[in-house]
């Protein structure tokens, strides 16, 4: 499976290649380079607003969006400085186009940042992609560009979103299903991955030996709690485009299950039924903690869910660790020092260790 954050950036690059977009970005980049090369213009910008323009870099994620956002943030001051120095500014149509592009690209930047952190689970992948798809479908900002990006998104991520694709992988959809905070993403009439996700979960559950849990132990635990509107609202804010699309399609089910009593199939059907009825809440728990606290209730499902949720959302953080290794070893040695692993650990957990020492 390729890195999801990298692939998401390729979708943005497809948009940058569109003539109308590429021309505006090229003119904006040229203006930024002109201002940054002028020490007088830079000093005037800093004295007037305390900010300078941002130069984008093709290898740095979201840098082009950050460049456009900074141009818009400093538009008034920038035009004043350019007028004083006799430098031409952008056309009115260019400024308007930049505003449209920022609105269109902003959700992609948010989800790229979200997927490349070390704290995000594989369960976030499908909701992020469906949220971006819903964003592009509902967008009226730039119809030709919207459709180009939507087509690129669907083609590049067909192996995650289209069960009919030859290389379809149901693992991210299964992880999404096992995360009670984002499982709602699969409950749509259009989301055909639901069956594939269920099959993937049951297939993995078959590899685990049958746990010996008595019925008395099961009945002694009550994992249900009232659904919190604030907790649900927090999740929906993160996927606002998808939430507006899914909300009307969620309908309570009767909760009937099929299969042998005590089977993984029955546990999964019960879990999904409770999700649709709003009887599963995760207000004070992480998804992993949710399943750890319900291992007695879902003895066959819990270990499978924990496996899925433990997988990272992308390879970006792992690549940063290798980059740190290269920096610490100076990249000039053919043998690693015995303390390299320990130094990398200290470097990657520096903030956590400092906070612990401060609290003590």
TrEMBL record:
This is Zinc finger BED domain-containing protein 4-like isoform X1. Residues 280-340 form the HAT C-terminal dimerisation domain. The gene is ZBED1. It comes from Acipenser oxyrinchus oxyrinchus. It comes from the Eukaryota. PANTHER family: ZINC FINGER BED DOMAIN-CONTAINING PROTEIN 4. GO terms for molecular function: protein dimerization activity. Transmembrane segments: none annotated.
